[in-house]
Design goal:
Oligomer: single chain
CATH topology of the largest domain: Rossmann fold
Largest sheet: 8 strands, mixed
Order of helices and strands: EHEEEHEHEHEHEHHEHEHEHEHEEHHH
Strand order of the largest sheet: 3-4-2-1-5-6-7-8
Length: 378
């Protein structure tokens, strides 16, 4: 029996009604690992939320929850619990700076690091020299895309042991839904909807969509841009960037709708209403799960050619990829093309749904994780 501890950052509980993506990946993957491999005993360590029990189980996997207002104390509490579990492998989720701490405390355990983004391996969050040392210190580094693997190896050397484990989508949640009733309720029956789902922060490139509004409103009959999200997970607080987006949209208010934070379980309803999904990321998007979710719903995607997005969206088949450095011309053209060609939209949507079914299920995520484990075991 291999005992594996999954240590989340302490930002959100597991399961988390409000986010974030790291905790959701753990929640969806670990029970599937346990089901697929009876020789793996998995345990999850996470933040305790208001009104939650300190110990629960999901899918047969035990979750130990502890207070996490102070991250150093959170880590210490988790390490005390780990002494009782005595794991063979400790998988740290998205916190590379924790690797040496766990290495010192648990010298007999294998320390794995699961990286979900470039955020915590680049300034201002981390010193590149330290990051390289900690990545080499880890017994295995898991990443969610070929892009992130290249990013690490090019900066920190080829000696780092890396395995790719793609995240997944519960495709059944996004299929078979009819958005017509919700469209009718909102008075959008005759609108052609371009949907953005995600955080409202500069690196997500939402400002590029505002720049496209004059063109789309003029050239696409019934056009409506729907922006679902807020600056922070689980919060409707408006930042300076959010206020700027709303100011830019004001002259085109008939053609844009802002929907503040929506919980993840409500997201399929929004995809069911959409005709096309737009993902204008300006930063290094390690994976971009929203692309896979849109495709699972049969919605073609127009996204920037950024980070790991080209590993999800097949350009010209399940959507279109546009230049990340100058996305506005491409966004204008490709969204216009899709929203004025029903047959093309349906064809791309069906191909996207099939691609997700084959490549981006949580069962495949668990299988890829187990492949990394078997490689470790020799």
């Amino acid at each position: 029996m291999v005992r594996v501890a999954f240590v989340t950052p302490g930002a959100y509980p597991v399961p988390s009604p409000k986010g974030g993506s790291v905790e959701r990946v753990v929640e969806k993957t670990v029970p599937r690992i346990a089901r697929a491999a009876p020789d793996v005993e998995a345990r999850i360590y996470a933040r305790i939320g208001r009104g939650q029990k300190a110990r629960v189980a999901i899918g047969g996997v035990r979750i130990d929850r502890v207070p996490a207002a102070d991250k150093r104390r959170y880590r210490e509490r988790v390490m005390r619990l780990l002494r009782d579990f005595r794991p063979h492998i400790i998988q740290i989720e998205n916190r590379p700076l924790w690797v040496p701490v766990f290495k010192r405390r648990f010298p007999r355990a294998r320390i794995w690091l699961n990286l979900h983004s470039t955020t915590f391996i680049t300034p201002p969050y981390a010193n590149p020299a330290k990051v390289g040392r900690y990545l080499r210190m880890a017994d295995r580094v898991l990443v969610n895309s070929r892009f992130l693997r290249r990013f690490i190896l090019n900066r920190h050397g080829r000696s780092i042991r890396i395995s790719i484990v793609y995240p997944g989508v519960e495709a059944e949640r996004f299929t078979g839904r009819d958005g017509d009733a919700e469209r009718a309720r909102r008075g959008w029956t005759d609108r052609r909807i371009a949907l953005y789902v995600g955080r409202l922060i500069p690196k997500k490139g939402v400002h590029h969509l505002m720049a496209c509004l004059p063109d789309w409103s003029r050239n696409i009959p019934g056009f409506l841009l729907v922006v679902v999200g807020s600056a922070f997970y689980g919060s409707r607080r408006k930042t300076a960037y959010v206020r700027r987006l709303r100011r830019k949209a004001r002259p085109w208010r008939k053609y844009v709708h802002f929907e503040p934070y929506v919980s993840h379980h409500q997201i399929p309803v929004w995809y069911a209403m959409a005709d096309v999904a737009v993902v204008p990321s300006a930063g290094r998007e390690a994976f971009g799960l929203v692309n896979a979710e849109a495709m699972a719903a049969g919605v073609p995607v127009v996204a920037t050619r950024a980070g790991g997005i080209p590993e999800i969206v097949s350009d010209g088949r399940t959507g279109y990829l546009v230049d990340a450095a100058n996305p506005v011309p491409g966004l204008k053209e490709k969204v216009r093309r899709l929203l004025t060609d029903d047959a093309l939209r349906r064809e791309m949507g069906e191909r996207g749904r099939e691609r997700v079914r084959k490549r981006f299920s949580w069962e495949r995520t668990a299988a890829m994780w187990l492949e990394a484990l078997r490689k470790e075991q020799g």
